Amino acid sequence: TLWEMNPDNEEASENRCREVASANFSDLILRDNIRALVEEYDYVAALRLAGQCRSISPRAVKLIEGCVHRLRLDHQRAVSCFGGTEFSYDPAEYLSMLEVYLHREQWADYLRAMTPALSELMFRRVREYLPDDDWMLVQLRKDGTVSRRIDSDKVRQNAELDAALSPVNDNNPYVTNGHLAKLIECFAPSSEYEPFKKLRALEERARHPLAHEVAKIDKVKIEKQGGILLEDSLRVMFKLDGSKRGLYRRISNEIIRLLQ
Question: What is the reported pTM?
Answer without folding.
Answer: 0.86
